[in-house]
Amino acid sequence: MLNQYHYQQEGMGSGEMTNCRKIAVANQKGGVGKTTTTLNLGAALAKAGRKVLVIDGDPQGSLTAWLGFNGAVGGREIGRVLSGMIPFSEAIRETNEDNLWAVPTNHAIVQVEQSLTVSENWERLLKRKMEQSPLSYDYILFDCPAAFSSLLTNYLTASDEVIIPVQTEIMALNSTVKFLEKLAQIRRDLNPSLKICGILPVMYDGRTRHSHEILKKMREAPNLKQYVFSSVIRKNVRLTEAPSRFIPILKASPSSYGSIDYLRLAAELIAQEPGGKPKAENLLKEVPASKLVDDEKILAGVELETEEEEISAELPAMRGIDE
After folding, report:
1. Per-residue pLDDT, 155
2. How confident is the model at residue 71 (pLDDT cuts 50, 70, 90)?
3. Domain ranges across the chain
4. Which residues, other chains included, contact 248 with Cβ-Cβ below 8 Å and sequence gap of 6+?
5. Following DSSP, what letter does each residue of 123-165 receive, concatenated?
6. Burial class of 307 by CB neighbour count within 10 A (0 to 12, 13 to 18, 19+)
7. What is the pLDDT of residues 276-307, one digit of tens each?
8. 18 secondary structure, DSSP code
9. How far is 39 from 262, CA to CA, in rounded Å?
């Protein structure tokens, strides 16, 4: 489906990656699982031993809240980087997950966004800030806002690739075509190296004919099929519970479909790395084959089972938010 991503490699046969994949998780439609994908894909890649940095680029701050940083961001956040108050490296925070770091945000980024376009060459501001800091990550994932704004323009310009989460619903599919046109404009005017990493079907419910038909259409549409991931993120109650526990789905519910689907997505990315296929297979070796999405069944019109789960009755208290 997708071209292999090329890495520069160190000499002496070390096989260590010296290039970092910078991926924007973006779609101009809200509520399509951008934050859910950014964090859980990041955690799955980290589980596979990759060093991952996730960046909360959305003024809503959902990723920041999910990681439990709200109320403790202080001056180390993406807005102060963009305003020139701190270097990018100073905004990076450790998380409670191995191999996973984060750059949080807070409400002040709204004011930064409003003043951003007065800067010279503002579209590449974040790219310059990142280039000025020593970074040693295998993956950097940007959680992007829905609105096509100066912030989103900066994230797309600082990225090499884009993952586009798309609900398996007709309105979401239609808006994706419009978003692809916007990406073509960014590629033409600002970032010629920007590539589509993949279109990610999310919130798939195999019990509904509509969800099944839209996924099949995505798989077969001439202008989309070459971009659609093999991985599918199924609708899963555990995914909606995980943010209240301040942990990724891989910890909140390791055996859930949500956890398995993001592990498969991570494996799909890792398989694109030079020599990455055995590592990708190793990541999935403990996952029962019966729990993986079967593409042949989708294309044959066979509905897939979606977990029926009740929300836990007792959830931990929410932490404080920024003042």
Report:
1. 95
2. low
3. 21-300
4. 39, 40, 42, 43, 44, 97, 242
5. GGHHHHHHHTS----SEEEEE--SS-SHHHHHHHHH-SEEEEE
6. middle
7. 888 888 888 877 666 665 554 544 444 444 44
8. -
9. 10
Report the C-alpha gap between 236 and 306 in whole angstroms.
7
**Which residues have C-beta within 8 Å of that of residue 85, sequence separation ≥ 6?**
75
Task: Mention every residue, 6+ apart, whose C-beta is less than 8 A from residue 321.
Answer: 65, 70, 71
Q: Please give the structure tokens belonging to residue 69.
A: 């940083």
- The pair of structure tokens assigned to 75 is 């001056």
Q: How far apart are CA 281 and CA 315, in angstroms?
A: 34
Q: How far is CA 39 from the centre of its chain?
A: 6
Q: Minimum mean pLDDT among 105-114, 116-125, 221-230, 311-320: which range?
A: 311-320
Q: How confident is the model over 28-49, as pLDDT tens digits?
A: 887 888 999 999 999 999 999 9
How many helices and strands in the chain, by DSSP H and E? Answer: 13, 7
pLDDT in tens, 108-160: 787 787 777 777 889 999 999 999 988 999 999 999 998 888 899 999 999 99
- pTM, full prediction: 0.84
Instruction: Give the count of beta carbons closer than 10 Å to the beta carbon of residue 131.
Output: 11
Determine the topology of domain 21-300 in CATH.
Rossmann fold (3.40.50)
Contact 119, 82 (CB under 8 A): no
Report the length, in residues, of the chain: 323
202-227 as b/e: b if 16+ CB within 10 A: bbbbbeeeebbebbeebbeeeebeeb
